[in-house]
Amino acid sequence: MKKRISTKYLYKTVIFFFLFVVIACSDTSKADSEQTKEAKEEAPVSDWVALFDGETLNGWKRYNATEIGDMWKVEDGMIVCYSEGGGEATENGGSLITVEQFDNFELSIEWKVSPGGNSGIMYHVVEGPEYNYAYVTGPEYQLLDDTGFPDVGDDQLVAANYDMYTPAADKPIKPAGEWNTARIIYDNSKVEHWLNGQKVLEFEEGSKDWKARYEKSKWKEYPAWCSYKKGAIALQDHGNYTWFRNIKIRRL
After folding, report:
1. For 190, how many CA atoms within 13 A lie in the half-sphere containing its CB?
2. What's CA 93's distance to the chain center, in Å?
3. Which of 243, 226, 71, 229 is nearest to 139 (CA)?
4. Angstrom distance (rounded) from CA 226 to CA 186
5. In the sheet that 60-62 helps form, which strands lie side by side, from edge to edge?
6. Are the C-beta atoms of residues 105 and 201 closer than 8 Å to each other?
7. What is the rounded CA–CA span in Å between residue 87 and residue 119?
């Protein structure tokens, strides 16, 4: 014959089970909360720094000049190069460079060129009366209208390390007049060029391959080229309308 379970016993059992569940959930929630807090404390704060505030040219100057002049202006949240013709060789021409200098870095810039346009992004640029132009000292990430600029070699196309390294043939380029994103990583002589989210070339300065390419390049004519490992970031005035925005950098 089965024993009948008393109502009082059943009631105590239910209460005990309910309290057990509440305590277990509370401990789990507390543990999760502590883990989340620890994760937040350990998560690195973003170290990207904007080089352009979207309104002024604060933090920038014209290469080897005391005044920026009228070739470079800010318009609708963009830095615009209003150069047309002589470029750096003209009286008011010249690349726009950062006042601050960088050694190891990761740089991101949105850019676009006019049809047939040519420009570039340089790094480790150094000023001096003995240097006429920014490109004499700093390596260049090439900006170009690939289809509208005639007679250039593969190592002079968009995203090339100018006159040294050719970008991947399948690079995701957008045409003149549309925004592209360039990214340059320089880390203890190891260099990567990215275009619109895709890595399109990489190399190491000073390597055997790099030296062989250098010997065949135009840069042999410029002894100071790539000799500095710390310098300014430069936006080139090549005599064509060019636009830049969302310029940011982080030190490595």
Report:
1. 3
2. 25
3. 226
4. 12
5. 60-62, 96-98, 232-235, 118-125, 140-144
6. no
7. 10
Do the beta carbons of residue 84 and residue 239 sit within 8 Å?
A: yes
Assigned token pair, 209: 């391959």
CA distance 182 to 200: 10
How many CB atoms are located within 10 Å of the residue 192 CB? Answer: 15
The span from the CA of 18 to the CA of 25, in Å, is: 11
Contacts (Cβ under 8 Å, ≥6 apart) of 71: 62, 81, 82, 83, 92, 93, 94, 237
Helix ranges (H only) for the chain are: 7-42, 208-216
User: Could you give the CA distance from residue 87 to residue 146 in angstroms, rounded to a whole number?
Assistant: 19
Query: How far, in Å, CA of 236 to CA of 87, rounded?
Result: 9
Residue 20 has pLDDT above 60, yes or no: no
The residue assigned the tokens 């410029």 is: 222
Task: Give the residue carrying structure tokens 């990583």.
Answer: 185
- Which residue's entry shows tokens 């300065």? 205
Average of per-residue pLDDT values in the chain: 87
> Residue 20: what are its φ and ψ, rounded to 5°?
-60, -45
Share of the chain above pLDDT 70, in %: 81
Which two tokens mark 24? 């277990």
- The residues facing 185 across adjacent strands are 106, 192
Beta carbons of 117 and 144 less than 8 angstroms apart: yes
d(CA 191, CA 160): 12
> Closest by alpha carbon to 83, among 193, 239, 201?
239
How close are the terminal C-alpha atoms of the chain, in Å?
80
**pLDDT for 44:** 55
